[in-house]
Structure to design on (1275 residues):
């Protein structure tokens, strides 16, 4: 009885104490040790994502894991081999979990001019393809298979894959390249670009009639990618013109509207005309294609930077001429070649021909077609003088050859305003960089009175425009800006206006988009070391918590706490009161 | 301890309960199948299984709900036996509850009476199963009838949609080929000879059949109760596309059969021996001839025809004839003809020639025969020239003929004389003589054709000098009216060439060489810069000033033409339109299969003979089949293959611009490099 009354009293007192404490609500200051926050980031591959899951499982019971880039993280664990922006800009110790390499698409550029009237090459640099191994690269446009080639790994485990696109209709083209190797995960990269119903403006100038340039003019006039204006001077003061052409090549301003100038018989041009052509290349950044029929005069030597010594050889039979980088079937036949003794510095040989040995000379390879920069533009010189004679030979594709070469020259010409987005196919919210190049400032030192350049982001269908902030880049004439991709899936256009002209670039936003990402394992190792982190292999995942603990310091902090605010106090209160009541009942008091 | 009667009664009740449960289950099952019949008939396999399970559940539920209790069964027994007077019900209650148990004797009496009553009644009367059995029977009949119907009519439609569609094509080749008809079941493609008649028999539901080819659209009614029959003639590459009209939606899919038409090619014939022109010393020679002819199907005739040419100048006569051949027919499409052709009956004289060619024909009705290259057999004469207008075999070695070359060849022949056999030496000399005559002929034609001083007699050759005519013209020469030294020198050169040709034919090569060199010297004199050679133009050579650009120089002006505005080739545009529609498809949408069949047909329509479009059509047909079978991965792959084939076609019709991305960085790098280069060291041009 005594014990039960004592117990009852004790319970009652305890309950009262709890209530009183709850009313008083004392505050206590304690020392707390926060759990470290580790950000786990993974690369674009599915294998990266899977391994990141393993990392989370290992770390979940040890630290707080944040499954995304987190600027306040105590450390970052990155799974993958590609350098992604969140890792690049992180200041926390970086731990790189280097998983097995696989095929990846490093870069995936295409030309600024994508026309609906022709095929535009799309080259992809593939990494991680061992030498001798083969992979199939498939290019899709809006999900439809567009091109497919087989790639072979070279000595440095890379492969340059040459694909192409013929746009089905103008507008934003969402391209995807899938590179599948025999083993391992296929590499995927996305790209968005704009296809236009545009044409290159080409001027074909013949100071005297010539067979070669006549046939080249005809094939260009049949190519829907060109607006061809031509002038053939047939006699003194008399010419045959197609379209409205400049009277002479002296007027560089008149030439500025053209992308490419094709001319023959440079020895028949005056110095003033050659100077006009040179100005066209230097200040407009245009391209000039010279079709030689004989060793040129000294004036062209000055333009091309050659030394003045030229060779000429006529062969007994024709040989194939093929421009490097084009389709293997696009060849012409030539038997008469003119080439300089020494190519000028910076010259690039586009087509080389092997001449068989003769009595006076051994077998050698000569540059049949080559190009050299002249200022911001480019000069293309063709020393294959008689390809027109063999244009009907079986196996040659005279029209496609010259259309392709002049097209290459035209696409090399700088646009007045060039805008590029990096990357151009992103996921919602991803970072995008816009880069704008003002040709006039870059090449000619434009004046400050030029109109300002503005950039806006709009949907493909039009609609409300979002202005983008631009800043000057270290490079003169180049502006840059950074923005986040919209949250809504769709196609967008960045429209840039300025200097009396406009240009656009496409931005594709979709959750499944993947930007090109190469193998940056070496760079990641250096980055990890520089931040105080480490590089691990997949086998060392289990040791990750220990490695993290070594570099992280436990942070203690004083925190104020109100212990009586916990709702759990209701439990002991209820128990005590319940015990007290039961005891009184047993005792017959209630 | 329960009595035997009680036990018996309990057993009877258990049996009756069991029966009642079965009957209720049967009723429920029948009801469930009845409700699920539409799903089972028109749905897929999964739907049918689900419907069966639902029916079973329905039966179980009905059984649970509608199974009568023992009390109800007892009441039914009472209703059937009016004399029972509630004894069965009482017995059931006593067995069910154990309260208020009457005395033992009464119990036994009750149970005995109840048992007697229950034994006397058939269980089928208590729990009739007729209704349930009847319902089950009706449902079963309905299912069987629908399945049979679907198998006979709807099933054919399904087969038509899949690989084993019920279509038969009888191919009847053109009669002249003498080939049997061929019948093909469910062809994926057809390869037939041009002119073949295709009889198409389609077994399908529907009121009519729409049969489309590249050229026409036919509406076909049923020929018999089971099939549609139609006939088309295959003249060119194309397709057969058919679908039934009026049938169910699932049977109206389009079916496509590409048709490739092979052409009966013309035969090929060559004269294998001698295989070149021959020069004969006289007309009494014979030539060994071998002729070979081939054809893809079968040859019909092989002949050797000749034309005898005699005469000279403007007095040629032509005589046609045929040489009999000994034919060896290796098989129907490889023949060989041989003959040892004796030319003596033709009575060829010096300067005459015979042009012969082989002629072959195959069995194509109305087709013209094919001729081989024509060869010449010529009886040489001194100074004779092969008449213009006949095709000559090309020389083994092509080189520009000139007097200098003739001299060179003569010198080489003389040098090699000691090493050559006599007849070889003579043949070589004769060949040089032919070349000498050809060079001479060039100058003769340049001078206006026939030399004026050639004698008018038949047997005189043009190389002979008409001394009388020349003597008559001496005073003209003396008067200076013909004192054109260039013309004189040229005439002298021509005469020396004639002499050289005659000496070569006579195998007097050394003398011929001296004449050749004299001719060369005279040519040098004739064509020196101070010489003028004049001759009058013949009528047919007169200039037609209406066809020449002429006028005052001051009228010459710049001509301006509109700039060209080319567009994509039509086939490329049409191919792009195909791809535009492909872009809108998704393999996961069932209706894509129909759209793909239409695209496959459009591809064949666009280019029935184009291999890439044939491939695209084939792949899209496969994709449609895969989508219908819900094999989405295979469907996507086939869709991609078809799209790639069309893209290749577009690529061949368009140009590719080389080069990659353009950037200011590249331009600036080039500019810097160029600036560095332009800072030239002294002395560099």
């Amino acid at each position: 009885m005594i014990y039960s009354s004592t117990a009852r009293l004790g319970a009652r007192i305890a309950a009262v104490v709890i209530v009183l404490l709850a009313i008083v609500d004392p505050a206590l200051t304690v020392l707390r040790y926060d759990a470290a926050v580790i950000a786990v980031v993974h690369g674009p591959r599915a294998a990266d994502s899977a391994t990141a899951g393993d990392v989370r499982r290992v770390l979940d019971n040890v630290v707080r894991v944040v499954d995304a880039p987190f600027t306040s993280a105590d450390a970052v664990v990155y799974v993958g081999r590609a350098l992604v922006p969140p890792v690049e800009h992180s200041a926390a110790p970086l731990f790189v979990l280097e998983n097995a390499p696989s095929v990846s698409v490093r870069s995936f550029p295409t030309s600024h001019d994508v026309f609906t009237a022709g095929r535009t090459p799309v080259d992809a640099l593939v990494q991680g393809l061992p030498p001798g191994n083969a992979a199939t690269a498939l290019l899709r446009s809006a999900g439809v298979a567009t091109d497919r080639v087989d790639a072979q790994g070279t000595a440095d485990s890379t492969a340059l894959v040459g694909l192409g696109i013929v746009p089905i209709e103008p507008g934003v083209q969402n391209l995807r390249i899938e590179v599948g190797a025999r083993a391992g995960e296929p590499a995927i990269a996305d790209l968005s670009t704009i296809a236009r119903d545009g044409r290159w403006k080409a001027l074909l100038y013949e100071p005297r009639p010539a067979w070669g340039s006549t046939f080249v003019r005809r094939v260009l006039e049949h190519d829907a990618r060109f607006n061809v204006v031509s002038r053939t001077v047939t006699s003194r003061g008399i010419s045959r013109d197609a379209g409205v052409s400049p009277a002479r090549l002296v007027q560089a301003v008149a030439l500025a509207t053209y992308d490419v100038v094709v001319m023959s018989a440079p020895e028949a041009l005056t110095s003033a005309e050659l100077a006009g052509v040179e100005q066209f290349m230097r200040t407009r950044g245009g391209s000039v294609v010279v079709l030689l029929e004989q060793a040129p005069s000294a004036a062209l030597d000055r333009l091309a930077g050659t030394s003045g010594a030229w060779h000429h050889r006529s062969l007994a039979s024709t040989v194939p001429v093929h421009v490097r980088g084009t389709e293997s079937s696009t060849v012409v036949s030539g038997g008469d070649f003119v080439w300089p003794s020494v190519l000028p510095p910076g010259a690039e040989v586009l087509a080389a021909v092997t001449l068989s040995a003769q009595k006076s000379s051994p077998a050698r390879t000569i540059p049949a077609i080559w190009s050299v920069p002249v200022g911001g533009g480019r000069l293309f010189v063709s020393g294959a003088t008689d390809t027109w004679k063999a244009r009907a030979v079986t196996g040659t594709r005279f029209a496609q050859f010259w259309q392709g070469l002049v097209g290459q020259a035209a696409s090399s010409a700088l646009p007045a305003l060039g805008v590029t987005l990096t990357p151009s196919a992103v996921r919602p919210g991803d970072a995008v960089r816009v880069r704008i190049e003002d040709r006039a400032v870059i090449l000619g030192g434009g004046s400050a009175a030029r109109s300002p350049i503005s950039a806006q982001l709009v949907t493909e269908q039009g609609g409300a425009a979002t202005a983008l902030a631009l800043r000057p880049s270290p490079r003169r004439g180049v502006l840059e800006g950074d923005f986040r991709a919209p949250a809504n899936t769709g196609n967008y256009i960045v429209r840039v206006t300025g200097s009396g002209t406009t240009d656009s670039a496409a931005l594709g936003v979709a959750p499944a988009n993947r930007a090109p990402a190469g193998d940056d394992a070496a760079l990641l190792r250096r980055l990890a070391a520089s931040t105080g982190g480490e590089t691990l292999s997949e086998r060392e995942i289990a040791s990750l918590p220990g490695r993290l603990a070594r570099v992280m310091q436990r942070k203690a902090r004083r925190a104020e706490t109100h212990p009586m605010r916990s709702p759990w106090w209701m439990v002991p209160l209820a128990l005590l009161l319940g015990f007290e009541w039961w005891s009184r009942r047993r005792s017959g008091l209630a | 301890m329960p009595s035997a009667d009680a036990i018996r009664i309990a057993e009877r009740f258990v049996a009756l309960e069991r029966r009642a449960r079965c009957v209720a289950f049967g009723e429920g099952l029948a009801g469930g199948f009845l409700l699920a019949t539409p799903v089972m008939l028109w749905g897929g396999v999964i739907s049918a299984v689900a419907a069966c399970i639902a029916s079973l559940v329905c039966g179980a539920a009905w059984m649970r709900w509608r199974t009568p209790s023992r009390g109800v069964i007892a009441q039914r027994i009472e209703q059937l036996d009016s004399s029972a007077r509630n004894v069965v019900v009482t017995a059931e209650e006593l067995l069910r509850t154990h309260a208020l148990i009457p005395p033992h004797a009464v119990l036994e009496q009750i149970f005995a009476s109840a048992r007697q009553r229950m034994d006397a009644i058939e269980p089928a009367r208590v729990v009739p199963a007729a209704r349930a059995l009847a319902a089950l029977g009706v449902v079963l009949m309905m299912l069987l009838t629908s399945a049979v119907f679907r198998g006979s009519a709807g099933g054919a439609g399904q087969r038509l949609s899949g690989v084993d569609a019920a279509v038969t094509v009888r191919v009847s080749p053109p009669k002249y080929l003498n080939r049997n008809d061929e019948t093909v079941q469910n062809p994926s493609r057809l390869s037939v000879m041009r002119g073949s008649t295709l009889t198409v028999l389609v077994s399908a539901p529907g009121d009519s059949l729409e049969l489309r080819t590249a050229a026409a659209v036919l509406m076909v009614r049923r020929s018999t109760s089971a099939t549609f029959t139609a006939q088309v003639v295959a003249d060119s590459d194309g397709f057969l596309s058919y679908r039934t009209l009026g049938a169910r939606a699932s049977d109206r899919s389009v079916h496509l059969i590409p048709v490739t038409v092979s052409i009966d090619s013309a035969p090929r014939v060559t004269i294998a021996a001698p295989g070149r022109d021959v020069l004969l010393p006289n007309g009494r020679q014979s030539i060994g001839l071998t002729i070979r002819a081939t054809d893809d199907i079968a040859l019909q005739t092989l002949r050797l025809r000749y034309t005898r040419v005699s005469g000279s100048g403007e007095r040629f006569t032509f005589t046609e004839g045929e040489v009999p051949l000994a034919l060896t027919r290796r098989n129907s499409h490889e023949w060989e003809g041989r003959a040892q052709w004796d030319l003596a009956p033709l009575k060829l004289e010096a300067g005459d020639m015979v042009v012969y060619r082989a002629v072959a024909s195959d069995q194509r009705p109305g087709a013209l025969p094919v001729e081989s290259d024509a060869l010449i057999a010529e009886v040489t004469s001194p100074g004779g020239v092969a008449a213009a207008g006949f095709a000559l075999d090309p020389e083994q070695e092509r080189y520009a003929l000139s007097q200098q070359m003739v001299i060179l060849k003569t010198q080489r022949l003389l040098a090699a004389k000691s090493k050559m056999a006599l007849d070889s030496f003579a043949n070589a000399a004769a060949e040089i003589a032919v070349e000498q005559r050809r060079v001479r002929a060039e100058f003769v034609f340049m001078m206006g054709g026939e030399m004026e001083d050639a004698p008018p007699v038949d047997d005189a050759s043009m190389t002979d000098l008409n001394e009388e005519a020349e003597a008559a013209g001496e005073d003209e020469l003396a008067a200076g009216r013909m004192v054109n030294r260039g013309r004189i020198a040229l005439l002298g050169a021509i005469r020396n060439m004639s002499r050289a040709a005659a000496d070569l034919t006579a195998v007097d090569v050394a003398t011929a060489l001296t004449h050749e060199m004299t001719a060369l010297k005279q040519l040098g004199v004739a064509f020196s810069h101070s010489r003028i050679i004049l001759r009058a133009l013949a009528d047919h050579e007169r200039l037609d000033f209406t066809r020449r650009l002429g006028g005052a120089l001051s009228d010459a002006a710049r001509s301006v033409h509109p700039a060209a505005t080319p567009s994509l080739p039509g086939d490329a545009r049409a191919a792009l339109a195909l791809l535009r529609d492909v872009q809108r498809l998704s393999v996961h949408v069932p209706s894509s299969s129909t759209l793909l069949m239409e695209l496959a047909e459009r591809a064949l329509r666009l280019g029935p003979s184009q291999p890439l479009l044939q491939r695209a059509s084939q792949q899209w047909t496969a994709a449609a089949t895969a989508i219908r079978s819900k094999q989405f991965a295979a469907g996507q792959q086939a869709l991609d293959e078809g799209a790639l084939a069309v893209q290749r076609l577009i690529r061949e019709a368009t140009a590719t611009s080389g080069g990659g991305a353009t950037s200011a960085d590249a331009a600036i790098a080039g500019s810097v490099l160029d600036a560095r280069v332009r800072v030239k060291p002294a002395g560099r041009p």
Summary: Chain A has twelve helices and 33 strands. Chain A touches chain B through 91 residues (CB under 8 Å). Residues 219 and 399 of chain A are 5 Å apart (CA to CA). The first helix of chain A runs from residue 2 to 24.
